[in-house]
Amino acid sequence: MPEILHQSFEAVTQWPVIVQGALGSALFALISYIGQLLVKRLVVTLAQFNQNLREENLHRELIHTKHILNSEFTDRVMLVSVFQASNYVVSGLIFLGLGWLFDGIVPLSFKIGVLGFLYFTFRAILWLERFNVVSKKTDLQIWSRVKEIETELFGKPENDTLEKLNELQRGKV
User: How far is 130 from 128, CA to CA, in rounded Å?
Assistant: First the structure.
């Protein structure tokens, strides 16, 4: 197996620099995308077992679905998302720094620090997921999901959500 990797490396180094750069960028984008999907799936799975993580996941989803639809709250949603993401990035950097600091004492500490850094970085990316102007879901599906989230978090949906759902079901919007 190492011989195949060596041959592949030698073949790639013969390519033009621009092609190598494009390939490296594409590989980074692919790894980043797959990492986001894996961490999102991991967070959802862990959230089923951990109530606090589940609540955070639901709050994030509520913020990204309901409040981004209201232009009055868009700047607040962005601010909260950036703050939460920054919090996770700092936690990841602390994890990485501690792993690096104890690398000489505990053999696996740096590798564990890198894994912790990646976990917290991808959690940060979840808070900064793209806000889509056009959704694949209908407004009725979006507001039905908002109602489910509010019922789970607060015990009952908020009045504005119920009003919006009634409007959508009557076909006014």
Answer: 6
